[in-house]
Amino acid sequence: MPISAKPFPKWLASMFMPDHPQLNSSNSFKPTTPGHGQFVVELLLALVLSKLPVVSIPFKWLESYFHELSHALAALISGGQVSHIELFSNGAGLCYSAGGWPVLIGFSGYAGAATWGALLYLLACSRTAVKFSYLVFGIGVLLSMLLWGRDVLTIAIMVSLAVLFLLPLKFYKTLIMRGALRLMALIVLLNALASPAVLLGISDRGDAAMLADITFLPAFIWVLLWFGCGVFALLCCWWRINAATKQLPN
Length: 250
Hints:
There is one protein chain. With 250 residues, the protein is mainly alpha-helical. It has helices spanning 10-16, 36-49, 57-77, 102-124, 130-148, 152-166, 174-198, 207-215, 219-247, and strands at residues 22-23, 29-30, 81-87, 93-98. Strands 1-2 form a two-stranded antiparallel sheet. Strand 1 (22-23) and strand 2 form a beta hairpin. The longest helix has 29 residues, at 219-247. The chain is globular, with a radius of gyration of 19 Å. The chain starts with 9 loop residues before the first helix and ends with a helix.
């Protein structure tokens, strides 16, 4: 008896394959993915927002959260245990773990933040995945808070991040939600690109120094690798736009 394959989830497929353009009432096509010009404008806007004194704070927390979450997941994947996560008001953070593979755990922080940013952007380009993404990431933040949040400040920051994801669900305009999620993703990506550069001025602490001690590779090599991860993540966003552009009618 032949086995029928289950259809690939539409929201997951749409992350990598562009949605078909929507046909509006005026018979003109309305793309669901931004064009190249819009991407550049949103990238510049994300750069400005990431530098503003007060507005940028939640996004620094978000990048720090993804950074420490990546450390925690790498520890669990490599057979270690996670005690707790600490997040600080200045955007710094710490992940306390035992066991696991130190190289994977140390490298995963900055690389993971860039990966999460790219994932957010790919999800934001999908008409079918955007609301699901807000819900999953909001619940994910609350779950990690219950598992690894110990101090009041960390819990308060995680609650704020959960609100950042869950509050947009009150808006039923997916166009607004997609735009907001794209901006959020680009700010995370830009912070993931800029953060490793700070380590160049720190010789005795930080992920790069720890990896240098373990592997005997200079710290600047690890910083370059993290920068490469950030650039590759941005290129993935650009390639997604290229794929969608090719779907538009001439």
